[in-house]
From TrEMBL:
<feature type="transmembrane region" description="Helical">
    <location>
        <begin position="88"/>
        <end position="112"/>
    </location>
</feature>
<dbReference type="GO" id="GO:0043164">
    <property type="term" value="P:Gram-negative-bacterium-type cell wall biogenesis"/>
</dbReference>
<protein>
    <submittedName>
        <fullName>YdcF family protein</fullName>
    </submittedName>
</protein>
<dbReference type="InterPro" id="IPR014729">
    <property type="entry name" value="Rossmann-like_a/b/a_fold"/>
</dbReference>
<feature type="transmembrane region" description="Helical">
    <location>
        <begin position="25"/>
        <end position="43"/>
    </location>
</feature>
<feature type="transmembrane region" description="Helical">
    <location>
        <begin position="118"/>
        <end position="145"/>
    </location>
</feature>
<feature type="domain" description="DUF218">
    <location>
        <begin position="157"/>
        <end position="302"/>
    </location>
</feature>
<dbReference type="InterPro" id="IPR051599">
    <property type="entry name" value="Cell_Envelope_Assoc"/>
</dbReference>
<keyword id="KW-0472">Membrane</keyword>
<dbReference type="Pfam" id="PF02698">
    <property type="entry name" value="DUF218"/>
</dbReference>
<feature type="transmembrane region" description="Helical">
    <location>
        <begin position="309"/>
        <end position="332"/>
    </location>
</feature>
<keyword id="KW-0812">Transmembrane</keyword>
<dbReference type="InterPro" id="IPR003848">
    <property type="entry name" value="DUF218"/>
</dbReference>
<dbReference type="GO" id="GO:0000270">
    <property type="term" value="P:peptidoglycan metabolic process"/>
</dbReference>
<dbReference type="GO" id="GO:0005886">
    <property type="term" value="C:plasma membrane"/>
</dbReference>
<feature type="transmembrane region" description="Helical">
    <location>
        <begin position="49"/>
        <end position="76"/>
    </location>
</feature>
<keyword id="KW-1133">Transmembrane helix</keyword>
Amino acid sequence: MIPLVIGLALLGAFALMLRREPRRLANGVVLLFALLFTLLGMMDLDTDSVVGFATAMLIILSPLLVLVLAGLLMANGVQMVRREGRRVANLMSFGLGVALLAPYVLFVVAVISESVWFATVLASITLVVSYISFLLVAFLLYSFVYLRLPYERGMGAIVVHGSGLIGARVPPLLASRLDRALEVYRAEFAVGNHPLLVTSGGKGSDEAMAEADAMAGYLIDRGLPDTAILREDRSATTRENLLFSKDLLAACGVSRMVLVTSNFHTLRTAIFARRLGLDAQVVGSPTAFYYMPSAILREFVGILFEHKWVYFGVCLAMAAVPPLLVLAVAVIPGEQ
């Protein structure tokens, strides 16, 4: 009964947080805790049963699920390299798959060596991996929720974020964003609104033209009038996309906007927009399935990096617990 009460209370807190400010990762953390407590409460188990059930799941399912996940991530990494080229970003899913196998390797070493300190290192790694995994699940859960939140109609502008060109050609990932922006524009136009559409992206060293110009050409070819388009052709990062588009729209007297990016990038873009003080909501466009694991991992790492010292401090504190416990046991005198 108590877990159910806690879960429902956390769900209420999540609803209030969502209403107040939906552009926070903390919402996902609260939602995940709420769902976990609610699930335990609905199972109506006593404390011993809850502990026994959780222990059984950890012992039986966790190793199997982790091994399966590691295999899938490594396979996706190989696929990413074949399709997108051998770059660090494309190796992230493969690297995570290898990292997930590390605790098992350490476990085997600890068993063979019968070393307390190997077991201690294993415990430290497990705690840190569990913490990062919890944050990743919260990120995935809330990204799924945020994508399904309706944006408010009547925005003054629609800002499409660039994602790179192939020479002067708009590739599928960017085309998907532009198609989604056209959907939003036409939906606004159908109810009598006339928002500006901002194409945001500068010229990369391997691109034949600025992304903003190529994006504008793509939209004009599909029937959008040139007079409805503003080109922001200086930005090279998401942060610059937002700042330069904000300045461009401020000159036109527009402050409220909807941002269009890929579905995997929506939550991080929304968090950026909140920190920069933009009156903006975010919608996402579809992405090829094979591209999603690496892209989601990049987004998650990017969010962690924004508060790297906080997360590093928590990980360091958790990793220190097992060795401190071992040292504490070692200095406690045995019973006489």
